[in-house]
Amino acid sequence: MADETPAQNPPMAAAQPPPSSATVSDSDSPAVLEKQDPSPTSHVPAVSVSVTESVSTTIAEKEEQAPPPEPAALEPDSSDKGPGKEELPPTPPPQAVELESEPPAVTEAPKEENPPAPAAETVVISESESQLPPAPAQQEVVTESESLAAMMEKEETGAPAEPTAAGTTTTTTTTTSAQEEVAAAVEEKKVPQNLGSFKEESNKEADLSDSERKALEELKQLVREAIDSNLFNSESKTEENPEKEKKQESKEVSIWGIPLLKDERSDVILLKFLRARDFKAKDAFVMIKNTIRWRKEFGIDELLDEDLGDDMEKVVFMHGQDKEGHPVCYNVYGEFQNKELYQKAFSDEEKRMKFLRWRIQLLEKSIRKLDFSPGGVSTIFQVSDLKNSPGPGKKELRLATKQALQVLQDNYPEFVAKQVFINVPWWYLAFYTMISPFMTQRTKSKFVIALPSKSAETLFKYIPPEQVPIQYGGLSVDYCDCNPEFSDADPATEMTVKPGTKQTVEITIFEKCILVWEIRVVGWEVSYGAEFVPDAKDSYAVIIQKPTKMTAKDEPVVSQSFKVGELGKVLLTVDNPTSKKKKLLYRFKVKPFCD
């Protein structure tokens, strides 16, 4: 924590403490917008939170240095009107500008006068972008960029045009930035987009259609007859006297630790096979029979207790849950850039089989932690990281992948809730285009493909930021004594910092305490600062951290604390002067004050 040295700022006027909940303050300046913080604050009644958005300091300084627009360029002079000159139509009045990320009812409109805000509100005075008319050519370029982004993703908002003035330098910068955005949008348009996202079906019998219930009952009858006749157990007999063994063996048959036909969990298992075979009971029964035989031949029960080492623990690992409670499995193909690891896993058939057994062992252990009750979570969220992946040119990896996919497809039906590919390179897009026609619509609806620049943002749509590993843009780390303050159970707030804007997270303190927080901007390239502003009139602001330019090479997460000895506000400010939007994550907690 930085030294708590009073900054040379004038005393702050006392403000009325807001209610102990997230608040929204309105400012008459069009450039200021305060939004209600979405994070719950019920667990910290000693504070409240609000977020203020204003124009970036860097852009505001450029506006002050730029010469004002010439009046003649905006409105024709009355002295130029004459009998031989055509009269130009008057310039239309400025129109209200609708905020891209706010509800349609919220608009910005210029006002002739700005009445002073109430004392309890936070007011940031800055020049609004909408007050300066942009050049027509620039507006066309930015509009094209935004429309392309809208085609890619409904939630995507194009970067707003930067404030422009009459100076040629500002105009050149804006045009170049817009052209870069158009190029990026065109490149992103090549990413395959699903027409509809997959939604898991209910496993409750009451939610099934009549035909689905009929197929389930038919399959249950087939399974009952097979168990009674000991068909599943006789499939893999190798003894010379199978009749004797038949009398000694139990008739109970289990898959993934669930005994078939014993309780309602069995229905969930059977529904997986039915959905994999379009609710054709006989086809699903054949699949079940083949799966049981394969599990015995592969030695699944013995595999669970087998020690296969930990060499591959960074290649595939389970970490956290998505927003619907599915456990998340990460597959990191870039680890195979390590030649020694690659040879150890794929150099010959024996090593490839050992790797397959290790992968199946991890999957089996993960499946046995699932909840197979009708309303439980019985699928896994898969994330495949293709950054630095060896690619399709590696024959050994291609053979191992094909072998694994065949095993999973034949013996582990309907265990994927969503398959997200991140850091996707160009070659995968070509590969996906080739194989896509051979996939069912159900399979393709589970796929989500994200380019490197969209990977973190894509993960946050499905996984809470506090559950996403730190290497993928989140806040989750392997917790130890070095980070005792926060865990995956501590929720984080996610928000977008628009290009050319500044976000200020204002945490109002109502009692003496120790405030601890974490803050992160994915990829940084922004300025971050923190200060404490007391409520007392004769007190001075305390600089916790001076505004500092943070780069991608800096620590991904900043952890800080501040001992609050008097009432006031802690302000966390992120200034984004770039032409790209940024993802801001933060969370905090209050600890008891001690002298």
Automatic annotation (TrEMBL):
Taxonomic superkingdom: Eukaryota
Gene Ontology cellular component annotations, sorted alphabetically: cytoplasm; membrane
Swiss-Prot/TrEMBL keywords: Cell cycle, Cell division, Cytoplasm, Lipid-binding, Membrane, Transport
GO terms assigned for molecular function: lipid binding
SMART domains attached to this UniProt entry: CRAL_TRIO_N, SEC14
GO biological process: cell division
Pfam families on file: CRAL_TRIO, CRAL_TRIO_N, GOLD_PATL1_C
Region (Disordered): 1-212, 230-250
Entry keyword Transport: yes
InterPro entries: CRAL-TRIO_dom, CRAL-TRIO_dom_sf, CRAL/TRIO_N_dom, CRAL/TRIO_N_dom_sf, GOLD_dom, GOLD_dom_sf, PATL, PATL1-6_C_GOLD
Low complexity biased stretches: 1-15, 47-58, 158-185
Subcellular location: Cytoplasm; Membrane
Ranges of Basic and acidic residues composition bias in the record: 78-88, 198-212, 236-250
GOLD domain ranges (all copies): 480-590
Signal peptide region: none
CDD domains, A to Z: SEC14
Family to which the UniProt record says this protein belongs: Belongs to the patellin family.
Protein known as: Patellin-3
